[in-house]
Design brief:
It is built from 2 helices and 2 strands. By secondary structure, the chain is mainly alpha-helical. The chain folds into 2 domains: 32 residues; 30 residues. The radius of gyration is 18 Å and the shape is elongated.
Length: 65
């Protein structure tokens, strides 16, 4: 798999994987936008209030069901 940064930061490289499926899985994971999971994977200290709010909301939803 070959890769380069789309934001033109100069990062790039290549890596060999044992199979096409493995390379595809890693490519999909690396291509993901972190903003999609912002509340779910928020940093422990910087966005702690967001993380706590999400945990409480999920807990309340579980009780309702």
């Amino acid at each position: 798999m070959y890769w380069r940064c789309q934001r033109d930061c100069g990062a790039g490289g290549e890596k060999l994987y044992p199979s096409v499926d493995t390379a595809r899985r890693y490519a999909t994971a690396f291509d993901r936008e972190d903003r999609v999971d912002l509340g779910r994977r928020a940093p422990l200290f910087g966005l702690l209030p967001l993380r706590l709010a999400r945990a409480l909301r999920n807990r309340n939803r579980a009780r309702v069901r």
